[in-house]
Design a protein that fits this description.
The chain is α/β, with parallel strands linked by helices. It folds into 3 domains: 43 residues, lambda repressor-like DNA-binding domains (434 Repressor (Amino-terminal Domain), Orthogonal Bundle); 121 residues, 3-Layer(aba) Sandwich (Rossmann fold); 128 residues, Rossmann fold (3-Layer(aba) Sandwich). The chain has 12 helices and 11 strands. The strands form 3 sheets. The protein has a 5-stranded parallel sheet, sandwiched between helices. The chain has a 4-stranded parallel sheet with strand order 7-6-8-9, sandwiched between helices. Helix 1 crosses helix 3 and helix 10 packs across helix 11. It starts with a helix and ends in a 9-residue tail after the last strand. 43% of the residues are buried.
Length: 323
């Protein structure tokens, strides 16, 4: 900093203000400082900065499952949102079924000096492990179906109700549910939304077939759907819906002429399934923005940032009236 200040003809305090985007630095002064930094190859030492300011400007991410589309998409969105707010991220991963691993991952993030932690926790077991910890930085959780006082989520039950409503409005009365794994909080909420919408319309629940989020489990479920006589299926994610479309096709059934299908997530490929998949879209970018805002804002974070994010039905070509 001393070399940069000398070359730019300013004080070290001015260099520090430029580095911290202080609003009271004149534009021409800022340009001289930035030019001097470029000429000297100056790079800010974040470790030294953290010692001086007692702030790391780093947000921790604890993920208990990053393999599925929703959690992985959220992690990428958190990193983008954090950078937009002037923060970096440090990530740690832990097996949801191993409480000791969750504790170790939290300890690792705290040791990095993170200013807050986003826990991507689709499993109840991760939340149970967190409840036993005394964490001295702000914490928010994603993909926990809104459980807990700092649980942020897309409204999963509302999304499921949108999916079922689309099928019921098309005239279907026997609507099956291809559910996600029982140990996932969002799978539980989507199943609850499916049942609630059927009940509100006075319709009897169709069969529930449990999958594992994979296209393979959706493909295998085609047999049970056919044997149950369902005319429509709400699949708890788009990957299972993809497998179901394939399995129904191989069984000689046409979608949507014989069976209508609605998915959940709106993965980028959903618009290119055959037929193009009607599904429920989750706004992962907005969810990440709210998570970062809740951490950066601390106790002053807007209450609206803690509210559930509204899902959106994306209508395509996989729903039609029953024969």
């Amino acid at each position: 900093m001393r070399d940069v200040a000398a070359l730019a003809g300013v004080s070290r305090q001015t260099v520090s203000r430029v580095l911290n985007d202080h609003p009271e630095v004149a534009a021409d002064t800022k340009e001289r400082v930035l030019a001097a930094m470029a000429e000297l190859g100056y790079r800010m030492n974040n470790a030294a900065r953290a010692l001086g300011t007692r702030r790391s400007r780093t947000i921790g991410i604890l993920a208990s499952d990053a393999l599925q589309y929703g959690p992985s998409r959220s992690i990428a969105a958190i990193e983008t949102s954090a950078r937009g707010a002037g923060y970096w991220v440090s990530a740690a991963f832990a097996d949801a079924g191993d409480a000791a691993a969750v504790v170790s991952a939290v300890d690792h993030l705290i040791a990095q000096g993170v200013e807050g932690i986003v826990v991507v926790a689709p499993h109840a077991r991760t939340l149970e492990a967190l409840d036993a910890l005394d964490v001295n930085v702000p914490v928010v959780t994603l993909h926990s179906a809104g459980r807990g006082s700092r649980g942020l989520s897309v409204d999963q039950a509302a999304g499921a109700r949108l999916a079922v409503a689309a099928l019921a409005d098309a005239g279907h009365t026997r609507i099956a549910h291809l559910a996600g794994p029982a140990d996932w909080l969002e799978a539980e909420s989507r199943a609850e939304g499916w049942a609630a919408e059927l009940d509100a319309r006075g319709l009897q629940p169709g069969p529930v077939i449990v999958g594992d989020w994979s296209a393979g489990s959706g493909y295998a479920a085609a047999v049970a759907v056919r044997e149950a006589g369902a005319t429509a299926v709400f699949a708890a994610n788009d990957q299972m819906a993809l497998g179901l479309l394939s399995g129904l096709h191989e069984a000689g059934l046409s979608v949507p002429a014989d069976i209508s299908v609605v998915g959940f997530d709106d993965v980028p490929d959903a618009a290119y399934y055959w037929p193009k998949l009607t599904t429920v879209r989750q706004d992962f970018d907005e969810l990440a923005r709210r998570a970062v805002a809740a951490l950066v804002g601390g106790a002053d974070a807007a209450a609206s940032d803690l509210a559930p994010v509204a899902p959106e039905l994306v209508e395509r070509e996989s729903v039609a009236a029953p024969r």
